[in-house]
């Protein structure tokens, strides 16, 4: 990976204390931990591999002069004390991965935040405000199908009932997994911290889309992080023999579901250009070749960075399901099983990020939404947040083919550095 990163690197981008070669070496070193046969990453939450990656980053933090701690949820915190203020600015991301993921989703955000701290040390700069580099535990949620664990612990945005119901693929409870890692529900509770003096959190992440690639820009400014609403939809008709039931005397649940799926695709654009809706899971019963489908259960994932339009779209999709079922004389059940509020990046934070990008790139940046959830979404409920996206080749993520050029990664670090120096200055 190191050679591939360095092959097309423009070394003139290494300046102001930022080293592309150092960043490439660190991305490479993290990628070797939990390396899969497909040259992907497997660092599942609370695994030895995730902790090994954390320990490596902790060592780099110490060498960069940071005070390093690991809290009761497994979050790693590297801190630089500010010269004249108790206020704190944070930046970071995560090191865990999906079972066969890429090498940039998460680690780039951690190492970009660390590279800024390292650049300050190399340039003998101490920020006015305190600065923390954060490695959040279990952002991806691959172990329990419930992510953002570390940021939830830090903010207190979780319930004990929810965590106690979690099981991994081996049947281990969340509490048992904590105990395997010398943690407990008690230490997890104690990871909650006050945000009274935390003024901002900035997260760098690969885009997980193609907008920056199409715009031929290395870095983009995030406007907001979409919150998902998930619906379970059940169409219940009548199963029957495929040969003996006339076409005009059927209650075919799959035909109803098929019409629903095709129309769901067309609804988002009627409400907002940032709305999306996806039918990602579908189960047909009895699922026989010669049997009219009697029941179809499916899910709809609805997202937007604006809660009002997201919820309006959700209501329209629920109404659509009921209208289709009624027209075909079949039963319908619709249940919302998840509703996470979107997080808006304030205009002020967007402008600060935009100014930083324009300073580095000498051109106007692209503003774009984040359709995926990130730790910044949880932290954003407690303090101001900003996000920077790095161009990702072909928009690929959660896949060994995930790739961002070292040029784009280093350009992002420079933008992050300018933004953090603004946020860490004496006047916010």
From TrEMBL:
Organism name? Alkalicoccus daliensis
Q: Name one GO molecular function term.
A: hydrolase activity, acting on carbon-nitrogen (but not peptide) bonds, in linear amidines
UniProt-listed CDD domains: M20_bAS
The Peptidase M20 dimerisation domain, residue ranges = 227-325
Name-wise, this protein is Allantoate deiminase
Q: Which residues bind Zn(2+) 2?
A: 105, 140, 398
Question: Record's superkingdom?
Answer: Bacteria
What the record says about family reads: Belongs to the peptidase M20 family.
Summary of subunit composition and partner proteins: Homodimer.
Please list the cofactors this protein needs. Zn(2+); Mn(2+)
Has keyword Hydrolase?
yes
Summarize where Zn(2+) 1 binds, as residue positions: 94, 105, 205
Q: How is the cofactor bound?
A: Binds 2 Zn(2+) ions per subunit.
Q: Which UniProt keywords apply?
A: Hydrolase, Manganese, Metal-binding, Zinc
Q: Which NCBIfam families match?
A: hydantase, PRK09290.1-5
Q: Entry's InterPro entries?
A: Amidase_Cbmase, Bact_exopeptidase_dim_dom, Peptidase_M20, Peptidase_M20_dimer
């Amino acid at each position: 990976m190191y050679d591939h990163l360095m092959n097309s690197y423009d070394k003139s981008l290494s300046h102001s204390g930022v080293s592309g070669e150092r960043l490439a070496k660190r991305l490479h070193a993290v990628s070797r931990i939990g390396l899969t046969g497909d040259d992907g990453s497997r660092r599942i939450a609370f695994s030895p591999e995730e902790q090994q990656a954390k320990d490596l980053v902790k060592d780099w933090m110490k060498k960069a002069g940071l005070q390093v701690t690991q809290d009761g949820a497994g979050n790693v915190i590297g801190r630089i004390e500010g010269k004249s203020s108790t206020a704190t600015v944070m930046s970071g991301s995560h090191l865990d991965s999906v079972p066969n993921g890429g090498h940039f989703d998460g680690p780039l955000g951690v190492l970009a935040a660390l590279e800024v701290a390292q650049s300050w040390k190399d340039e003998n700069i101490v920020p006015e405000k305190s600065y923390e580099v954060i490695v959040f535990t279990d952002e991806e949620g691959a172990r329990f199908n419930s992510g953002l664990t570390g940021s939830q612990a830090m903010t207190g945005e979780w319930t004990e009932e929810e965590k106690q119901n979690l099981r991994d693929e081996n049947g281990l409870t969340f509490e048992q997994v904590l105990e395997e890692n010398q943690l407990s529900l008690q230490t997890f509770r104690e990871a909650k911290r006050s945000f009274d003096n935390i003024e901002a959190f900035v997260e760098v992440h690969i885009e997980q889309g193609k907008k920056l690639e199409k715009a031929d820009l290395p870095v983009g400014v995030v406007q907001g992080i979409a919150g998902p609403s998930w619906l379970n939809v059940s169409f219940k008709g009548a199963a029957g023999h495929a040969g003996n039931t006339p076409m005009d005397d059927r209650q075919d649940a799959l035909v109803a579901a098929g019409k629903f799926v095709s129309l769901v695709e067309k609804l988002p654009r009627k409400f907002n250009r940032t709305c999306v809706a996806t039918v990602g899971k579908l189960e047909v019963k009895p699922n026989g070749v010669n049997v009219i489908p009697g029941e179809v259960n499916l899910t709809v994932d609805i997202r937007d960075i604006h809660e009002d339009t997201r919820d309006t779209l959700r209501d329209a999709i629920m109404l659509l399901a009921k209208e289709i079922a009624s027209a075909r004389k079949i039963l319908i059940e619709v249940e919302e099983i998840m509703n996470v509020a979107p997080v808006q990046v304030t205009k002020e934070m967007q402008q600060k990020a935009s100014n930083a990008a324009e300073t580095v790139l000498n051109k106007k940046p692209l503003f774009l939404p984040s359709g995926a959830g990130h730790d910044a979404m949880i932290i954003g409920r407690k303090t101001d947040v900003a996000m920077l996206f790095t161009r990702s080749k072909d928009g690929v993520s959660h896949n060994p083919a995930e790739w961002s050029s070292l040029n784009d990664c280093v350009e992002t670090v420079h933008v992050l550095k300018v933004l953090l120096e603004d946020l860490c200055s004496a006047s916010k």
